[in-house]
């Protein structure tokens, strides 16, 4: 670290070490989340889940990842090759970069930018582009379907999500994530903004394409949606991106509504992770209990219910702040 | 300059034969405009094995195992239909206890068929968990049936003239325990499914079948009962021991896919009632008719015998010319008629609806292909 600091300056060294840490965190986190999803699903379905590899199947996902790495990367004949190859990378990079500004604790933050939340929201929109690329390049009707659905869904759900985030930012008066957390040292914003929290979680589930809003990859309708033609590690990257996205969405929810690293006794970073994984568990719970909504219902729900509600919430927040 | 044709507004989408929700090898050729379906055409025949032709080359007993391969989910009703047709042809009478055993096992099999349908249907709607609950219940049932029939799926249990195996005490206590268990499980299904807003929104007013359409397309089974017609062969043309039991035919009113769901779940409850009564009243006596010849050689003639399977009316039409082999067997299967309404229901719906409608028809593709 000190050697690096000599060449790059303190900020540069921090950046490099941070990026390495992020990559490590992302892979470990994804492996853990996939195992967690399988276990949560299994226990909800009255079965034990993976049990063979490691204690309670703990390293089952490592084995799966190794298997996926060993698989052939199939490129179907008629695909648009450059776009087909690029899509898994494009889906993965923005989620990776989002980690740079996530405040795990007061000190565990790689770059505390003054526009942190804007950066994350901007990056969280990019995977849609990759999904569109994947669907379009695959030369498969089901994949195109999935891609089109994904774009429509993300446009619809981005808006209420941004509006709810706006109402929190109005209260704090800063785009800086550490400021938002610091402002919640006494009470969490979920108490002041319960509606915003519910809207945020709903939109977050839709943004990450998870059930009951998993229409882009609805297996009973579209086989596998946009990643129908992907195999091996390319498919794994889409998978990895989905789980990392879940982590990011839950991390923002923790920062905005659940007081980030605040909590008694335990160190901040533990509290932060506990809250994030609790939210992820909630999203898994949704997935394994709800049926899938239909596409028109999904869009109607966003435009006719969530957006007006989010606007009303924003206006009321602004009004209360003005009067105070 | 290249001129692109923008005339075509629709495109073709192949749903299946390899698709997660076509329940086997059914292919639906869809003509679509965006996400909306303008035309749907089921393409069948991928699982054709020529059962009817096979019948012409086998003797009556040898053809019996084929029945379980026609409808693998409610195999015992198909067993029953075929055996009853042969008995009619031969003039054999099944003893009382034999009929009771047939009813008990066939009704248990009906429940297992409906449980598979329930899970698969909800899987089509995107809910993954219920199928594992259903299969957990079904597992109990299969153990029971395995005990008495010797197989878990493709049963070949009934014989012309009765049944070859008597019920034992363990089966009876096991069945009673299962009835108790399944009744408590219906509450779970209600909480997980029937009270779910997303489920209701997905199924209400989708795939509505009117009474006229039922008649026009020759639908049978839960498809007509969902539309409010109380047509059930167990009541309308009573056979076996069914007249001795007290049960009602559940019907829906609107005929949408929610009604068909409700009808099937209630049917399971009614089946439990039938089994319970049959176990209570189980008479003593022989299970197999006396003097059943080793070689079945019926006199020349024709018979038709219909039974109510989990999907509707199964009819077995046998033409005999006095040989040890049937001259011709025609199987009237419920799924074929039920599927024929799909093109009409599918127009102007979304792909997601089509999958739900197809699920609500409860097709067993090998049955259609035969």
Order of helices and strands of chain B: EEEHHHHHHHHHHHEEEHHHH
Lateral strand order in the biggest sheet of chain B: 1-2-3
Overall, the morphology of chain B is globular
Taking Cα atoms only, what radius of gyration of chain A do you get, to the nearest Å?
20 Å
Count up the helices of chain B.
Answer: 15
Provide structural commentary:
The complex is a heterodimer of chains A (324) and B (370). Chain A has helices at residues 2-44, 60-70, 81-98, 116-137, 141-172, 177-182, 189-192, 194-207, 219-222, 232-257, 268-289, 295-323. Chain A is globular and about 65 Å long. Chain A is mainly alpha-helical and 324 residues long. In chain A, helix 1 (2-44) packs parallel to helix 11 and helix 5 (141-172) packs parallel to helix 12. The model of chain A has no long low-confidence stretch (mean pLDDT 83). Chain A folds into two domains: 1-70; 74-323, no CATH class. By secondary structure, chain B is mainly alpha-helical. Chain B has helices spanning 51-55, 64-70, 75-90, 96-124, 129-149, 169-194, 197-203, 211-217, 222-226, 233-236, 257-281, 334-339, 342-346, 351-361, 365-369, and strands spanning 11-15, 27-33, 36-43, 301-309, 312-320, 328-332. In chain B, a hairpin with a 7-residue loop joins strand 5 (312-320) and strand 6. Chain B is built from 15 helices and six strands. Chain B has one domain (51-346): Cytochrome-c3 Hydrogenase, chain B. The chains are: A mainly alpha (324), B mainly alpha (370). At the A-B interface, helix 9, helix 11 and helix 12 of A face helix 4, helix 5, helix 7 and helix 14 of B.
């Amino acid at each position: 670290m000190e050697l690096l600091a000599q060449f790059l300056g303190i900020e540069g060294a921090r950046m490099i070490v941070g990026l390495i840490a992020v990559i490590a965190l992302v892979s470990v986190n994804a492996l853990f989340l996939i195992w967690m999803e399988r276990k949560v699903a299994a226990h909800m379905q009255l079965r034990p889940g993976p049990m063979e590899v490691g204690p309670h199947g703990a390293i089952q996902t490592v084995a799966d990842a190794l298997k996926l790495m060993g698989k052939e990367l199939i490129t179907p004949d008629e695909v648009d090759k450059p776009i087909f190859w690029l899509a898994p990378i494009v889906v993965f990079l923005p989620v990776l970069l989002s980690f740079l500004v996530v405040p795990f604790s007061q000190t565990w933050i790689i770059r505390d930018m003054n526009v942190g939340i804007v950066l994350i929201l901007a990056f969280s929109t990019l995977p849609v582009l990759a999904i569109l690329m994947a669907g379009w390049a695959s030369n498969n009707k089901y994949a195109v379907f999935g891609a089109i659905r994904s774009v429509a869904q993300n446009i619809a759900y981005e808006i209420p999500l941004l509006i709810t985030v706006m109402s929190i930012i109005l209260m704090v008066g800063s785009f800086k994530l550490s400021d938002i957390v610091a402002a919640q040292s006494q009470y969490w914003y979920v108490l002041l903004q319960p509606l915003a929290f519910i809207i945020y979680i709903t939109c977050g589930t839709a943004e990450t394409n998870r059930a009951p809003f998993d229409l882009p990859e609805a297996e009973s309708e579209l086989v596998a949606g946009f990643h129908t033609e992907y195999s091996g590690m390319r498919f794994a990257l889409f998978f990895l991106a989905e789980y990392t996205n879940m982590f990011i969405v839950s991390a923002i929810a923790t920062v905005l509504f659940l007081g980030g690293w605040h909590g008694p006794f335990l160190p901040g970073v533990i509290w932060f992770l506990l809250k994030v994984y609790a939210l992820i568990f909630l999203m898994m719970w949704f997935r394994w209990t709800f049926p899938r909504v239909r596409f028109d219902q999904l869009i109607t729900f966003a435009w006719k219910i969530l957006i007006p509600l989010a606007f009303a919430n924003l206006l009321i927040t602004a009004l209360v702040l003005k009067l105070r | 300059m290249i001129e692109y044709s923008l005339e075509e507004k629709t495109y073709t989408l192949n749903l299946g034969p390899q698709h997660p929700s076509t329940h086997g090898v059914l292919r639906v050729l869809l003509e679509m405009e965006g996400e909306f379906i303008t035309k749907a055409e089921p393409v069948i025949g991928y699982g054709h094995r020529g059962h009817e032709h096979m019948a012409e080359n086998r003797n009556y007993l040898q053809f019996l195992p084929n029945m379980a391969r026609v409808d693998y989910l409610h195999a015992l009703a198909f067993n029953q239909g075929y055996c009853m047709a042969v008995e009619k042809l031969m003039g054999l009478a099944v003893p009382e206890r034999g009929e009771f055993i047939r009813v008990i096992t066939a009704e248990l099999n009906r429940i297992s068929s409906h449980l598979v349908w329930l899970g698969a249907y909800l899987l089509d709607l995107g809910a993954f968990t219920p199928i594992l609950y259903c299969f957990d219940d079904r597992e109990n049932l299969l153990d029971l049936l395995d005990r008495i029939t010797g197989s878990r799926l493709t049963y070949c249990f009934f014989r012309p003239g009765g049944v070859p195996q008597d019920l034992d005490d363990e089966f009876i206590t096991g069945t009673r325990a299962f009835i108790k268990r399944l009744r408590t499980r219906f509450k779970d299904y209600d909480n997980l499914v029937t009270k779910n807003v997303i489920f209701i929104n997905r199924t209400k007013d989708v795939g509505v079948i009117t009474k006229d359409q039922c008649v026009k397309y020759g639908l049978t089974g839960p498809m007509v009962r969902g539309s409010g017609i109380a047509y059930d062969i167990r009541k309308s043309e009573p056979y076996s021991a069914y007249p001795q039991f007290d049960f009602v035919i559940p019907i829906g009113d609107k005929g949408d896919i929610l009604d068909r769901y409700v009808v099937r779940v209630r049917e399971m409850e009614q089946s439990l009632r039938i089994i319970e009564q049959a176990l209570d009243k189980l008479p003593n006596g022989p299970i197999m008719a006396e003097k059943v010849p080793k070689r079945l050689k019926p006199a020349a003639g024709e018979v038709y015998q219909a039974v109510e399977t989990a999907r509707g009316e199964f009819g077995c039409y046998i033409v005999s010319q006095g040989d040890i082999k049937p001259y011709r067997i025609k199987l009237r299967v419920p799924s074929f008629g039920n599927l024929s309404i799909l093109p009409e229901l599918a127009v102007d719906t979304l792909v997601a609806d089509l999958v739900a409608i197809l699920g609500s028809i409860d097709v067993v593709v090998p049955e259609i292909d035969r």
